[in-house]
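2024-03-11 09:14:02 INFO worker-7 job=invfold-0412 stage=load source=structure_tokens
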């Protein structure tokens, strides 16, 4: 039904102020620009992987997922009509709705893709995963698995984090417990560890050092480097995410520093980074 994660939208007070970072430093390329939205692509074929939209600072604007065709859209729409969620729009090729915590989710099929590579010499190939802070994690887990059809790949003990997949990649959506519904972080994938380290060097030269990493996670096995964008959003360069088959048995990992970073090279996640990932509500300027 759902085949992969396509893109994410984040709200900022002035998208143009973030554009130079995401183009020149992070390595994305503009494909579409309107008065209130800027869409950027990676080096892969997806039309866009990030939308910067005008809105309240640090809000998740929405998540876009791909479906396997019109039959999948119809099946999902029928499921959603039986749930206590708000349907925003429906068609043969697209359904948009609010999940139980009010996140805007789009599932669509038949969308255009790029046939030529990005002009950028560096940057992420695609969107890897998005991590969501949930006030009611049990309800979110139930909705994303039972209704949207995601499967649990692994968890941290007592569901402190739930890793969800919709294809062979270990996870594309991760649920984390939160005091408020918010965006935790967005991860972008490059080809391999060497590309992660090149990105680290490039960002350091541009004045953006890691806030956590480089290291390798236990669940998912992916290499990571975390940064803050100029608006304070936590973003990640990652590579080598584990691929699993239908015979995969979910595991429960102890929530320890050793499992968060099996190499022990990341320097440890600090309270300041945990606070940034929690994305607390902000007072209007």
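2024-03-11 09:14:09 INFO worker-7 stage=emit residues=285
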């Amino acid at each position: 039904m759902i085949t992969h994660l396509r893109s994410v939208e984040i709200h900022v007070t002035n998208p143009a102020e973030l554009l130079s970072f995401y183009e020149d430093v992070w390595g994305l390329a503009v494909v579409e620009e309107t008065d209130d939205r800027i869409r950027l692509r990676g080096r892969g074929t997806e039309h866009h992987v990030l939308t910067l939209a005008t809105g309240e600072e640090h809000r998740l604007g929405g998540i876009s997922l791909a479906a396997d065709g019109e039959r999948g859209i119809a099946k999902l729409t029928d499921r959603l009509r039986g749930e206590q969620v708000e349907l925003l729009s429906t068609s043969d090729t697209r359904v948009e709705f609010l999940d139980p915590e009010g996140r805007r989710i789009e599932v669509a099929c038949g969308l255009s893709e790029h046939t030529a590579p990005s002009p950028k010499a560096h940057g992420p190939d695609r969107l890897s995963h998005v991590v969501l802070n949930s006030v009611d994690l049990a309800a979110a887990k139930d909705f994303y698995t039972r209704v949207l059809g995601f499967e649990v790949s692994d968890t941290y003990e007592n569901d402190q984090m739930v890793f969800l997949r919709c294809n062979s990649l270990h996870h594309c959506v991760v649920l984390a417990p939160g005091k408020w519904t918010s965006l935790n972080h967005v991860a972008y994938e490059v080809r391999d560890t060497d590309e992660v380290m090149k990105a680290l060097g490039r960002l350091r030269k541009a004045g953006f050092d890691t806030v956590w990493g480089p290291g390798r996670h236990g669940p998912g096995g992916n290499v990571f480097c975390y940064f803050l964008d100029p608006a304070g959003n936590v973003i990640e360069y990652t590579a080598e995410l584990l691929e699993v088959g239908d015979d995969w048995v979910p595991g429960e990992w102890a929530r320890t520093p050793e499992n968060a970073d099996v190499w022990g090279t990341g320097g440890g996640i600090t309270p300041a980074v945990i606070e940034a990932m929690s994305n607390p509500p902000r007072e209007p300027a």
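2024-03-11 09:14:09 INFO worker-7 stage=report msg="Residues 115 and 146 are 35 Å apart (CA to CA)."
2024-03-11 09:14:10 INFO worker-7 job finished
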